[in-house]
Amino acid sequence: MVANLGAMDQNNVVVMESELRSLVEQIFIKLGVPLIDAQTAADVLVTTDLRGVESHGVSGQFSSYVEDYRNGITNPDPVVTIVRETSASANLDCDKGLGIIVAPKAMEIAISKAAVQGVGMVTMHNTRHMGMASYYAMMALEKDMIGLSMTSAGPSVLPTFGAIPRLGTNPIALAAPTSQENPFVYDAATSVIASNKIDIWKRSGKKIGPGLVADMFGSPIMDSLDPNDYVGPALLPLGTTRELGSHKGYGLACMVSILTGILSGGGFDSFPGRPNYYHMVAAYKIEAFTDVSIFKSTLDDFIVALKNTPPMPGQDRVLVPGQKEWEVFEHRKKHGIPIHKDVINWLKHTCQELNISMNFQ
Amino acid sequence: MVANLGAMDQNNVVVMESELRSLVEQIFIKLGVPLIDAQTAADVLVTTDLRGVESHGVSGQFSSYVEDYRNGITNPDPVVTIVRETSASANLDCDKGLGIIVAPKAMEIAISKAAVQGVGMVTMHNTRHMGMASYYAMMALEKDMIGLSMTSAGPSVLPTFGAIPRLGTNPIALAAPTSQENPFVYDAATSVIASNKIDIWKRSGKKIGPGLVADMFGSPIMDSLDPNDYVGPALLPLGTTRELGSHKGYGLACMVSILTGILSGGGFDSFPGRPNYYHMVAAYKIEAFTDVSIFKSTLDDFIVALKNTPPMPGQDRVLVPGQKEWEVFEHRKKHGIPIHKDVINWLKHTCQELNISMNFQ
What we know:
The structure is a homodimer of 361-residue chains. By secondary structure, chain A is an alpha+beta fold. Chain A has a single domain (12-354), classed as Ribosomal Protein S8, Chain: A, domain 1 (2-Layer Sandwich). Helices cover 36% and strands 16% of the residues of chain A. Chain A is built from ten helices and nine strands. The longest helix of chain A is centred in the first third of the chain and has 19 residues, at 99-117. The first copy, chain A, starts with 11 loop residues before the first strand and ends in a 7-residue tail after the last helix. At the A-B interface, strand 4, strand 6, strand 7, helix 7 and helix 8 of A face strand 4, strand 6, strand 7, helix 7 and helix 8 of B.
């Protein structure tokens, strides 16, 4: 879910990127994360908020990361080991490291392999939450590569016809470079919605729309629902019902489980007895397949053709994947990031506990 | 759409696999296709019908292939050229060759590269229809690899909010090997339905269900529709509406366009002035990432966990991707393939024209 451009709301405090970055970095350091990793983690989280992806940034995920460092579930200073490797692939044991810290390292490996072999692909196991998957895919852009990333998580999504969640929201992200247009950036769960959307709707007093979740028996709820009445986790795969193709969203979620958890030797979404996060990143060097300039100009043409599609009645325009996020990004870079007062209060409280001075309120 | 197990229907003739294979092969040969390619093409088409994927087999696609050979759109004896290559990647100019003939060659290249480098990825341009995408993904299974394939086609699918089709149905297929269970095989369009489903519904007198297509102004039709009243192409991306996540199906379709058409230097779905088919296949060698035996047993466990999910009210069981197709495959291997009498009549007519004797009626 991409936020609006950050229009003032009495429940929000607007914070400039640099202030937020500095604070997040300090918190990671206080939790035992080495400086360079803390900088990486802060960049992933703040970039996420700059792009308006509230559900995965400082507002949506940071508190759970802090909690998991404190209760020992996440290792602040992991020793990442390459357990298998070829010239084009690697599998990493991430030593309980946080995904937003280890996945950038994995993507660097994938990019360096793709630079030589044309393709690089790296799986990760024994790791934690990956945050916004497109961050790692986007690392490929400046190298004139296509970036791909996916991650599987603990079960919150029902298989088609199922009454118990067996799959994570298992997003897929792909970034591809352009010449004139903003880069193509796709990033979405294979479920109808990501699970933390429900918390955001609770906070904002919004209803859960029809067809997004199931009832406690697994039947899709086709009316609006108060988020406080939701008995989850019972998210639906993309497609909502079998008739509308939920077996496709379900199958894509399984595909992500296979390419992340099972291929990395880690397990799968509902594998018992552990935090089930597994990731995969890949880089494809465009020059290995075609001219970079032709690729970029053709992708420009594709994006322009999509944008110029006449809209259906009631709509102003056709968007392309990532467009809304680029628009929010440009705005928030200049005007700051709106953060809900509940999150500000949590930050204050955390800073007090960790003995960090906080420069904004 | 997977057919039922082939229950007798007065409109169907049941044909044994070997008879159908032989006939299809002879037709390809008469159209100028070399023997070995004709055998490959027949295997792809008959395997598709054996798996119950009517929309892409002899019943669904063969007549259009024959027509395109006859009118010179498809080259019966293409010289496939590797235009760029690295140790892990290749891009093929397919010389107007039919996808079901050139994609197996591409997958063999991907597999041979993955055998050495862990990963192999091959793009294809200047080609024609790919048929059932999972055929090529499944070629990886016996090599203890994961197979991936995708293809983009001419525009029939609306972007979210758009009134004019800009995207193909752009399917993604993934196959992964197991030990005890049937292999995992996912294969589905990124649109709610594949376009030739509508022809099949016309033939069988079925209605188009709600939420599968749009009206001529781009608005999703949320009631049932007589297929004869459908003014297309105006298929909807997986997700149907923006509220139900159609921007995800739309974004996945774009991802396929990028990894097939644009990365191969060919173009994109709505690129003007040519038959816009582009493909990509990839192979991932499991041993490069983890132990093959662990991978297979974990995938078995995953499949069993999914199958054992308690069903929602009104459903008997939870299926896994490819399960229904395996069940149909087993049945049709033994009992034959039901083919609609209209298709039989077309086969008869074609055999007469090509001076081939047909052993079943």
